[in-house]
Sequence to fold (300 residues):
Amino acid sequence: MAPSTDPSIWNQPVSVPEEAISYVDDAVIEKMPEGTKVLSIARSGSSYWAQTAKITTVNSKGNEISYFIKVNQGEDGHKLVRGEYHSMTTLYDAMPELVVKPYGYGSYKKMEDTHFFLCSFHELKNGVPDINVFPALVAELHNRKTSPDGTFGFPYETYGGRLPQFFPVSTSWEETFASGLQRTFNGEEKSQGYDEDMAQLRGAIMNKVIPRLIRPLETGPDKIQPRLVHGDLWDGNCAIDVKTGKPVIFDATCLWAHSEYELGPWQPLRHTINQRYIERVREDMRKLVEKFPHGYQEVS
Fold:
């Protein structure tokens, strides 16, 4: 279970050794239900950053259960699996019918500095979810609940690919978003060096665009509420489950945000989930707000 990425476009080998998916470490087994017996492990899916595999097991009742494991290494690898686990757990708790089930994360016992994230295995179809189904599910996810304490952000560092990102917890979406974007700009400058044009763009965005665009959204009776978003919901992080025929989402970098933050990855023309999906999400969200003016949880 992994997005249908094409390894041929990435000319660097995965840094994690294949040994990491040649066996099932005891630390991984401990995250499975008691009485689980491992039958096999085999490479499955593709990733530019991690080793990925399908683990086939039999549970205590004799039923065959499969898991999906992602293995990373190093300090960043540990923070990556930790952030993904907490992101996926938060999403799964909100809408389990849409989200791949997380089972745990941790560090290998036999291999040094090797870390894993374990979740349910799903055989996936190529292609993106149906526009007549998926936008409504995304809108429902956003409408299911608001932040329990009314804050934006997320308490854990998450990773977009290999790039760390952090949106600090705050009562202000402007503050949370600006802090996260500043970190992105800092990382770009550290990686690529100082560029005058980029510096001017950065100044304009941080000092003019964000205050003028976001600040008004946080005032008045209709101010935005912190909604739970996947955080990186592009074509490669959603698919159709072969068994159920329904959409599933994975590889989350979630946070509590303005719901339209979710739609950013749908803007690039190269993506199949595009402007048409954005229009449908907005339409479906309007319908949900009209039906549940005080939030979905009032009837849950």
In short: The mean pLDDT is 91. Helices lie at 26-29, 74-94, 134-144, 173-192, 196-214, 275-291.
